[in-house]
Amino acid sequence: MLEAEVKKRMAENDLTQQLAIRALAHIAEIRDSDTGDHLRRTQGYVNRLALGLQHKPKFSETLTERYVDLLSRSAPLHDIGKVGIPDSILLKPGKFTPEEWDIMKTHSQLGSDAIARAEQDVGVPLPFLAVAREIARWHHEKWDGSGYPDGLAGEAIPLCARIMALADVFDALTSVRPYKTAMPYEKARDIIIADSGKHFDPDLVAVFVENFDAFVAIGQHYDSSGN
């Protein structure tokens, strides 16, 4: 009976965690009608990349089944900081001014700060919040150090954020936005390959290429735009 009760409580905690993540992610969806599809696609891309890396000796110690699960669950919170960006910028159909771009870039820190405050409120370490915070803050860093907000480079960028970076860019390239049409999957693939060692971790790009067909399938499955 005790074992059954422990399993029940663990299942309830697990469900609560999943619901909390989805509730937070849906806040972002309210601000942008395409965000729901974006979150589902990027979550799928992140999971596919992580599973592809899992069997590589260099990453097998980090990418345990538990960590891959945490990473996949936390991925929808990567842009939660955008709730702090004014609509006039977030939903702008044209190109940002330099001043607007500076404001837009603050979403990564806004998101990580909000998650950090949640961690403090809880008072005990929760692994999924730690992963979510790292993704939110550093998924716009670049392998060559030219990203933001902290200019991290190479393996100084947490692996979860490096994975999210590739997934996020692939989705941005292949999705319709108010200011652009969707790029063909093959052209987006070529751009990511060209940015290997510059924007992206070369090891992740290699796994992306190996799993390109799976990426296309995920993108098409969660595309409600009709493209």
How would you summarize what this structure contains?
The chain has one domain (about 1-220): Hypothetical protein af1432. Helix content is about 65%, strand content about 0%.
Please identify the top-level CATH class: Mainly Alpha
Query: Which CATH architecture is right?
Result: Orthogonal Bundle
- The CATH superfamily bears the name Hypothetical protein af1432
Mean pLDDT: 88
| Percent of residues in helices | 55-70%
Span between termini: 53 Å
Q: What is the tally of beta strands? A: 0
Structural class: mainly alpha
H-E order = HHHHHHHHHHHH
State the CATH topology.
Hypothetical protein af1432
Q: What portion of residues belong to β-strands?
A: under 5%
Low-confidence stretches: none
How would you describe the shape?
globular
> What's the total helix number?
12
Largest sheet geometry? none
What is the domain total for the residues? Answer: 1
Radius of gyration of CA atoms, rounded to a whole number? 18 Å
What does this structure look like?
The chain has helices at residues 2-31, 35-54, 57-60, 65-74, 87-90, 98-105, 107-122, 127-138, 159-173, 185-194, 202-210, 212-221. The radius of gyration is 18 Å and the shape is globular. The protein is 65% helix and 0% strand. The mean pLDDT is 88. With 227 residues, the chain is mainly alpha-helical. It is built from twelve helices and no strands. It has one domain (2-221): Hypothetical protein af1432 (Orthogonal Bundle), CATH 1.10.3210.10.
